[in-house]
Write a structure and sequence with these properties.
By secondary structure, the chain is α/β, with parallel strands linked by helices. The chain has eleven helices and 15 strands. The chain has a five-stranded parallel beta sheet with strand order 4-3-1-2-15, covered by helices on one side. It has a five-stranded mixed beta sheet with strand order 5-14-13-10-11. It has a five-stranded antiparallel beta sheet with strand order 6-9-7-8-12, sandwiched between helices. It is globular and about 65 Å long.
Length: about 350
């Protein structure tokens, strides 16, 4: 692995959360140089890179309406296309589809077919593209087999607003939604969320607090607005996560079923760094997929550094077998190109 260079293109917040400096030291001990990429500067002088690990979610989303972000993204894509030997973790098209819940939920909805033997599914959902009249939305909700309560989520699955959700209890309260958005049937799951963190061929399951159980069917309860990130923090303490009734603890998800889910999603997504939010239906114990996340935080995964480096090494081993390269003197410092523009 001596002489290998891995570029990281992350926002300041993401660099802090994953403690990139500590990861760089960890990699240096194994002969791998970690380089912080500055998107505001030409990329060629910052290279060469054997692998680029990135989370360009902010830039991709902002490029929809901001010319500077469009240029930064274009420069990055140009570099990647003219350096085909550089491995991208993960491919831009794969990441882009997960920024759109319409796209990711279509993938989720097909899991019950490909994973039928494992009794894995996702809740019924509905894409709301625009603020059409209330009656047509109500009719479509009924026609598509959704059941109250419903969770409403933003279409864009990135940024602070993507965590702002609402729980809707009746057809009349559908006036509270703000399209474009996704409506998803709420599944009672005993206030326990299982976050599955994927790093290449390894995955880790971490338990988190989640929304409590609610009576099935429509009722006159007012819409509950909440932030999913706050609700599911490890230390979260909220009325929304406190069960109103005594109920036996649910069994943990089947490790074999989770492994099958991860294998299928790696194929479907073409990605190696992602997270899956799953719950267990309290009535059927069916493993239910409710969201997919790009390059998550991996909080609660002490093996993250070693797992990520192991995956990078496996990627480089495959690269070497296809296209051997001359080794060079290893560098062991964290190179900082300046303030990153991927904020």
């Amino acid at each position: 692995m001596s002489g290998r260079r891995v570029g990281f293109c992350l926002s300041d917040k993401k660099r802090r959360r994953m403690n990139l400096g500590a990861f760089a030291d960890f990699c240096a001990a194994h002969g791998v140089e970690v380089v912080e990429i500055d998107l505001t500067q030409p990329l060629v002088p910052q290279g060469p890179f054997d692998v680029i690990v990135h989370k360009l979610s902010d830039v991709i989303v902002e490029a929809e309406h901001d010319s500077q972000s469009q240029q930064l993204l274009s420069n990055f894509q140009s570099y990647v296309s003219t350096h085909p030997s550089t491995v991208l973790l993960d491919p831009l098209p794969a990441m882009t589809q997960l920024l759109d819940r319409f796209a990711s939920y279509r993938i989720m909805s097909k899991l019950h077919n490909s994973l039928r033997d494992w009794r894995i599914c996702s809740p019924p959902y509905l894409e709301i593209h625009s603020a059409s009249d209330l009656s047509s939305i109500q009719q479509t909700v009924m026609a598509q087999g959704l059941s109250f309560p419903l969770i409403c989520k933003t279409r864009v699955a990135h940024g602070s607003l993507s965590h702002e959700m609402s729980l809707i209890f009746s057809a009349g309260s559908l006036t509270d939604i703000h399209p474009p958005c996704v409506l998803q049937s709420f599944v009672n799951h005993g206030a326990v969320l299982h976050k599955v963190f994927v790093v290449g061929d390894k995955h880790f399951c971490v338990e988190r607090p989640s929304l409590k159980n609610f009576p099935s069917g429509p009722c006159d309860r007012k819409t509950i607005f909440f932030n999913s990130h706050q609700v599911s923090k490890p230390e979260s303490s909220s009325d929304l996560t406190a069960l109103d009734e005594q109920m036996p603890c649910l069994p943990p998800p089947s490790s074999q079923a989770v492994a099958a889910l991860v294998r299928e999603l790696r194929v479907q997504l073409g990605m190696a760094l992602f997270g899956v939010d799953v719950i267990l239906n309290i009535h059927t114990h069916t493993l239910t997929v409710i969201d997919i996340n790009i390059f998550p935080g991996y909080e609660g995964v002490p093996q993250f550094f070693s797992s990520l480096l192991s995956h990078i090494e496996s990627v480089l081993d495959k690269q070497t077998s296809v296209c051997p390269r001359a080794t060079s003197t290893p560098k062991t410092t964290l190179t900082t190109g300046g303030p990153s523009a991927a904020l």
